[in-house]
Fold this protein.
Amino acid sequence: MFVACKNTSDYVQNDPYVSLKNRDFRLFAFARLLITIATQMQGVIVGWQILGYTKDPFLFGMIGLTEAIPFISTALFAGHVADIIQRKRIIIISAIIMNIATFILYLYTLNNDLFLHQYGILPIYIIIFFTGIARAFVAPAMFAFLSQIVPREDYPNATTWNSTAWQVGAIAGPAIGGFLFGIIGVGKSYLTDFILTFIALILFSFIKARPLLERVKKEKLFTSLSQGIKFVFSDQAILGALSLDLFAVLFGGAVALLPLFAKLVLKTGPIGLGMLRAAPSIGAVIMGAVMVYRPPFRNAGRNMLLAVIGYGICIILFAVSTNLILSVFLLAVSGAFDSVSVIIRSTILQLRTPDEMRGRVSSVNNIFIGSSNEIGEFESGLMARLMGLIPSVIFGGGMTIFVVGFTWIKAKALRTLHLDGKK
């Protein structure tokens, strides 16, 4: 069943550039690109800074947990807010908070890391904590705002371009972050990060605000929060897709340990780390370009399951590689597989979610997927300490494949799902 939408064959788009002809979507996608570059840059800079200062994989993993805790804690309320307050306003406020956080990180690195040596890494974790809160609010607002910017029949095309913009940012961000860290140092790297976030904020401000649809029934807060959860758990295809990505990201978290692989296994520095961080997104962008012309919506559920299997295999092979070029290649292929999964999942959510529930359903998605990246960092750091670096990643890839097998058996609605309107 597709809630509040026509037959899915209506959404098969012949013009691969239809969304880019929309001015507001172009602004949205470019702002998303810049803020993604800035976020990914910050991840490389903070990770390398803390790892260099502490040399402890557990404390490195704590970065993810520090951001995930506020993200999870406020996600449902953030989704509720996105369904009752103008989405553009939420995006602007969240972007301002992220701007301020990045600028404070820059200030903290002045005077030759005097503050870092005096106060330690705790203030960095505090800043990351507030960044997690901002992310919790901006994510459902952006998801819901996208559906207001483009017509419903363009959702699959817009989702593909939006995901590709994110992946391009994820390519450029780590590469720029690693390069700048190695060339101009941590302080100026943070300053560059701040400038990019500020430009994204300006671009968001130029997008025309859209009024919210009037809600037929105004529920109490607790009832409103629970509606998104009930909707997701009542739709086996959505639940299966979210669960699959949750556990795949949680266990297949090799990316979280890339600084350790760069330093200890591949014997490379910040620039090499930037290459490794960018590689999955390079593969994802290439695959995204292919999917603009050849959408994977026929046998979509099966394609998603097979893509996650391929992702798990790439993670296992990456764990045993000792060659930088081979490792970059394997991560790129893993990114291509992940792109298939991301675009199918995002399209399922856009097509099957009622307009008045997009914020709340997106917040549930963010708990499943967004937080799994940060929790995956914590899990990866912990398992690396307990099992060793390479065995922990092999274990994670194996668990990813196991989860696909379990989902294949239990989620028939996902396995047999088509998004092209054909039986």
